[in-house]
Amino acid sequence: RAMHAVIDRQKNHGMHFRVLAKALRMSGGDHIHAGTVVGKLEGERDITLGFVDLLRDDFIEKDRSRGIYFTQDWVSLPGVLPVASGGIHVWHMPALTEIFGDDSVLQFGGGTLGHPWGNAPGAVANRVALEACVQARNEGRDLAREGNEIIRRASKWSPEL
What pTM did the predictor assign? Predict the structure, then answer.
């Protein structure tokens, strides 16, 4: 994550993240910070979703609104796990579940270590929130609309949350 600002966030030099992501995938990389949309790291939702698909999917249709400028067939080249981090915590979990789905890495640094009861309860809170959101999504519930209520209900069964 730290090197992105030097390589792909500069207006006058550097390379676009899309190029960096493709180079990583072609060289056998296994994970990269793909932007978060929520938390303290900026990123447009549609563009971030395009990056996530570019990293994970075997076949990506052209969709300029998501930063995919031509159809890409990766054939059997393994995907790359998108990583989200940067100021994320349990209240972001509905959005993170919706954006990143199942195959991703969610790094909760301060969102775990900053729990008032300590690190272990912070980890439990993150896991309970994730499982509640995944279950709600699998039941067909609208995470964008019902996310806060889903977290509140889960907290009744887990005091850490």
Answer: 0.86
